[in-house]
């Protein structure tokens, strides 16, 4: 069985974004420029393909030509129960730096905790966890 992957077209900020996400989540980061890929449809130093592989795996590229950059409406990247509560709380705090907290990470009436943040790159995250019973 394969897991779903997120592939993001950033507006020229892929290098900065994936480096930021590596700082948040850890993992191994690889990026390839358009020039390295033999492409001439954008700036030679633009990222043609980047990947962060680790506890959270993300793929990204710089939007070039007619590509439209990411716009998050009616969608969030959900990290619900994907790590220990302390790790998820740390990720929420890190993603909030320079971003906008939409709903603080907090305990809910049903006993779980969750919250939502739009990070500095415009990606909306839903992070939450169950409490040990």
Automatic annotation (TrEMBL):
Glyoxalase/fosfomycin resistance/dioxygenase domain segment(s): 13-125
Top-rank taxon, per record: Bacteria
Gene3D superfamilies for the chain: 2,3-Dihydroxybiphenyl 1,2-Dioxygenase, domain 1
SUPFAM superfamilies, A to Z: Glyoxalase/Bleomycin resistance protein/Dihydroxybiphenyl dioxygenase
Pfam families for this protein: Glyoxalase (PF00903)
Annotated transmembrane regions: none
Xref: PANTHER family: PROTEIN YJDN (PTHR33990:SF1), PROTEIN YJDN-RELATED (PTHR33990)
The protein's name in its UniProt record: VOC family protein
Source organism phylogeny: Bacteria, Bacillati, Actinomycetota, Actinomycetes, Micrococcales
């Amino acid at each position: 069985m394969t897991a779903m992957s997120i592939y993001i077209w950033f507006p020229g900020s892929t290098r900065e974004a994936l480096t930021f996400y590596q700082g948040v989540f850890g993992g191994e980061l690889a990026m390839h420029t358009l020039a390295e890929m033999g492409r001439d449809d954008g700036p030679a130093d633009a990222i043609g393909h980047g990947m962060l592989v680790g506890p959270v795996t993300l793929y990204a590229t710089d939007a070039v030509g007619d590509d439209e950059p990411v716009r998050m409406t009616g969608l969030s990247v959900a990290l619900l129960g994907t790590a220990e509560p302390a790790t998820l709380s740390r990720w929420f705090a890190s993603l909030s730096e320079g971003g906008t907290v939409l709903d603080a990470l907090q305990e809910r009436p049903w006993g779980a905790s969750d919250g939502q943040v739009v990070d500095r790159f415009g990606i909306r995250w839903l992070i939450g966890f169950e409490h040990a019973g």
